[in-house]
Every structure is written in structure tokens, then in C-alpha cells.
Amino acid sequence: xxxxxxxxxxxxxxxxxxxxxxxxxxxxxxxxxxGAVPEVQIREAQVDFVxxxxxxxxxxxxxxxxxxxxxxxxxxxxxxPVDTHHFSxxxxxxxxxxxxxxxxxxxxxxxxxxxxxxxxxxxxAELAPRGECVLCHKALKSPPVKEVVKYNPYSDDxxxxxxxxxxxxxxxxxxxxxxxxxxxxxxDGFSNLxxxxxxxxxxxxxxxxxxxxxxxxKEFRNIVLPVRLMAVNTNSSDDKNEWMVQISEFDLKSNSKxxxxxxxxxxxxxxxxxxxxYIIEDIDLRQQRKKIGETETVDDQSIVxxxxxxxxxxxxxxxxKEVLSPTVKAIVVDSGNITANPTGREYVLDVGNVFxxxxxxxxxxxxxxREINExxxxxxxVRLARRDGRTFxxxxxxxxxxxxxxxxxxxxxxxxxxxx
Length: 420
Hints:
By secondary structure, this protein is an alpha+beta fold. Helices cover 12% and strands 28% of the residues.
């Protein structure tokens, strides 16, 4: 051991030297054997998948022939009759659209009703269901048929859009483009066509039909209010007059609690719920104590009744639950305000609400809701009054679902105004 301790460096060096010499000898041996390997011979290609001989000089084996023949695109075709209207080879896509319910992209084929369409299926059972989404199975509306209008140079209205050629030329419109009739040249919320038919100026934003003509009723419904009953505190008393209720604002978009309105007892006033003030009228205590392990909790399902100050409207609130508006609201669409939404801005209106349509550039108007009747007429109506100075003058006609402007005459987005 003493010898190894003294000479371990020399021994390590000697071992390394012997290993190096061994590897060098092995490399020499490998170099000497390389020349002894026979040259690899590549056998000439032989056709072994046909019985008859192949003519290598045939045109199909010539490069020039291959580049000039048989390179055209072969049209895709369906495999089953059910795939007729929505077959794709992943290069040529079939027409598609987004389902308004599940927001998935589906073949446009499913947006059309089966009735009145041509099919190559052998039987109705082989035809895919139409008129409903193939994924969420909700009913779909058939899109309107787009009519192609050909320009008629011999007509006073060459593009058939309802505005004479002479008027279109005076207003800087295109007599060959029927789409510009539904554009809004002066940005007053009325299409060029509707202004022409109404005998107002399509190039003056302050010359237009009454602003409420832009409105139509979409639906009537109770809405969820941005307020919640958070808890009922009995203060360890059986006397209702000693109890306190906690009411808070609630953010419906983020689904989270907002600012506290405060703690209220029976007889106290809660301000600013659905645009009204209410009095706490009664508390129906529904609390149950539960014990989970060592922890005791309270399941609070209490209900609070509120009554409008100087009115008959009543709201019922339950701890932690959504609060619905006590009255039916009218959801009204402004078809002229396509800058806020391509389908129009929506107003949620209640009796007494005051709202404005338009602005200073187009001489906007202010209206007040006088009456909402979802059972009147054909699908309900809303009675409005227009501000005239300091008073509101009731309108002679009610607002309806159809509206004053026919759907085919409502303003549409203009590519020119979008800079396209």
C-alpha cells in the first residue's frame, strides 16, 4: 500500500499510455480491413409487380411527358348522397356559417329548410336534417335569398334600388350600385332610400323623419337587476323589527358583488333599485343551522319583500338569488345606430324612462316612455311622448314590433364609410 501511495501518479500515467497504444493498434487494424470490403453493387431496377414487361421508353416514363400531361386538378366529389352539399377535400371548402347559439362553424347547408330544395338522396332518410344546427340541434333561420339586380341602361332606375338615376347622380351615388340605397350618406340613421321616399334630404343630417321611426320592438321580458340580498341578521332576536337585511349592488358581467347599499330594517327606505325607491315591508326568515365536523354554518334562504314608495310595485328578494325586475321591460332596437352594433343599439325601457336618439349633428330628439303593453296589437306596443321644450307631447302612433321603417329599407353599413 505504501508503494501505491508513493507511485500512484506514475502508475496512472502508465495505465493511460497502455490504453492509448491499444486503441491506436485497433485503428490500424480497422484501416487495413477497409480495403478488403467488396464494392457494393446496385442491382438494376426490375419490375416485379406486373407479369408483362415494361417499356422504359414509353411516354409515361418520360419527364417532359409527365410535366405536360395529367397534371390538371381533378374535381372533388362526394362519396355519399348525404354529403352532396357539404363535401370537402380539405382544399376546396364548402360554404360555412357560424351557428348563432353554439358559435361553432357548421355547413351553411343546415341553415336552409328541407322543403323546396333539390336533393340527390335516394330517400329522405339519407338526407341530413336541415333547419337546425348539426351540433347543438337548435332551430336555425333560413338566410334571405340575395337577388342579383342587373343594370338596365334604358330604365330611369338602372340598378333597381328605388332611387332614380338622376337623383343618385345629384347625390354622388352610383346608379349602377343598388347597395348604396341602404347606406346613410348624412349619418342621421336613415337610409338614402328611406329619406328619398320620405322626401327628406339624404345629404343633410338635420333633415330627416322623426327619430323614433328608427326604433322597433325586439321583445318584452323581465330583466335581471344589478342588486342582491346578501344576508339577514336577526341580532339574536325574535322580533322582526330588530332584524337587519344587507343589500348590495351586483355586477352582472363579472358575476361579483359590488358596492354595499347598506343595512336596512323593516320600514326603512332603499333607494335606486330599478329606478325606484322602496320600503322594506316584510322579512320571511328561512335560516337553518348546519354543522359540518366542528364548524357550524347557517343556510340562509330568507326572503325580503319591498314595496315601492308611493306606488304599488313590489319586489321580492331572496338571499344570494337573482332579482328580477318587477315590471316587464320593452327591449327596443335603434336600427339607425349601427356604429354601436351592426344590428342596432338596444334600449331596455320601462314606463317613465327618458332617452335620447341621435345627437347635435343630426338634431337628436328626446323621448319618454308613457305605456308598455305587451299584449296590445300584433305583438305588443310602446307609447312614447316627444320632448317639446319643457313638456312631453304624446305621439299619435305607438311603437310596434314592425317599426316604421320596413326591414328592407333600414340603413346598412357602408363600405365607403368603413374605408374599404
